[in-house]
Amino acid sequence: MSLFDPDTPSPTSPQALSVSDVNRRARQTLERDFGELWVEGELSGVSRPGSGHVYFTLKDARAQLRCALFRARARFVGAPMRDGDLVKVRGRLSIFEPRGDYQLIVEAVQAAGVGELLAAFERLKARLAEEGVFANARPLPCPPRHLLVLTSPTGAAIRDVLAVLTARWPLASVTLIPVPVQGREAAPAMIAALGLLNRQQALDPARDAILITRGGGSLEDLWAFNDEHLARAIFHSRLPVMSAVGHEVDVTLADFAADARAPTPSAAAEQLVPDRHDLDQRLAVLAGRVRRATQGRLDREGQRLDHLRARLRHPDEVLARQRTTLAQLEGRLARAMQGRLATERRRAHHLRQRLAAHPPGRQREQAAQRLAGARDRLHAAMPRALALHRQRLAAVARELQAVSPLAVLGRGYAILEDEQGQVIRRAGETSPGQTVTARLGEGRIELEVKRQAVCDNLPRSGSPSN
Known about the structure:
Layout: H1 19-34, E1 36-47, E2 54-59, E3 64-69, H2 71-74, E4 85-96, E5 101-114, H3 116-131, E6 146-151, H4 156-168, E7 174-178, H5 186-200, E8 207-214, H6 228-236, E9 241-245, H7 253-257, E10 260-261, H8 265-272, H9 276-311, H10 315-357, H11 360-403, H12 405-410, E11 415-417, E12 435-439, E13 444-448
Helix pairs in contact: 4-8, 5-6
EC number: 3.1.11.6
Protein name: Exodeoxyribonuclease 7 large subunit
Domain OB-fold nucleic acid binding: 17-109
């Protein structure tokens, strides 16, 4: 007999309650016994569907509590509600009967400070930034020859990445490195995978880029990507690393340590490879430009060929034209030579006539006669010129002798000079005891002044003084 056999009656079977009854009684008990209360905790998994309601989880170090903030009350909450915020909420405990979910119906929300996880994140971020762990900025190859993707093999991230790569660049070579992306094992597994890939890179140089990715989640779900050791492993990776963790608003330390960051897994795939449709369009544009350039070149060369063909003449025609030109040049040369010869003959005849009219012998005799006459005239003129110059010299000498100071000294006069050789003209220019020099007609004598006498009755000229 089976315990769950419906055909077996049970004489002592109690009255069974439906699931709805159980949930309803539990809701009524919670709402009656607890009433309105304040609860403090850290926000996590904040969700805002299109209905306008806000759903989130309040948690502390040991437990968590689901919460619902309906639209009628949510519009009175001024501050934004973000994962990691520490808040105080006022509400009443209840149960959502269709699912049996135990929850807190929130009526008001007050900020209570920054959550512990968020504060720890900011402290670790500041310390790693100061150490330079966020200084990576190596460019990633586009497209990579062999992309290594570190993510969960069952998550939506790998499906999004492969879908975008297939649509944009089917030639992409991708290797999935399965690692956990949530929980305590996630960070050590990713660190070990990074180390192994960097060691194997020397064996396969085609592996040239790493993508670390996962889908969105709460701050706790993404906390493995805020691991300090993982950030350092990304920083020290020889292979360039792109990080695409969570949604657009999610930021982790892995994003800062990586060489490049994408807001979502799909965006990472779009950044890593070009769009083949864009390349097809660009190739079509370039092909059109090549066709137009080629056709233009062919048209220009065809026109040039036509022009050269029009200028091309038969060799006989060219030779005949050149023979005609040569004959013309020969005729011009012969006429020029005949004219030049006639001119030179006339010039030579004229020179012969001039030479006959003036023979060099006759000119030489005439020049000799002129030279002899000039010699005779020179010999006759030289004595007269010498006599005349002697007379003039004697007259000048007499005139010079008449005005010479030496001639005056010869008549008994003397010139007195002081010690400096200056001529003394007045008695007042001397002093008793002074030695002066007297220059005579013949020789000099030194005199000593005894006294001065100023006399106005001395003769002005004629006889010398006594």
